[in-house]
Amino acid sequence: MKKINESLIEILHRLNESGLFWFTVFICIIVLFVLLWLITRRPRLWYWKVGTQTDALTSIERKMQQLEEGLKNNTVPVIAPELIEQEKDAAAEIKEEEEDVAASCKGKSGKIYTEQELEELIRD
Fold it and tell me: Residue 84 and residue 76: Cα distance in Å, rounded?
């Protein structure tokens, strides 16, 4: 151990004589900070990840409680309002298509023909 200490002291003396001592100390300090930053990186990231997960779970819990209260009071629709509007639009489109099909199957006399009857009329 004494040999190692003596060799370190000798290296430091040589560096001091050559003018590189303070530069070497500065580089060693930077390397030390970088190593500490890398070593503590995983715990720091874990801490922020846990915080984000906690916030998300709290938000989900709050929304679930609001939903439960709304369902108990019958103030929350089971289907989202956007979906209700989409269903109304889709039902209206289907009704229009059915009316168009019915109108196209109607003859001049007002009789509604089936597809098979129309195909037979077209073939004849």
Answer: 13
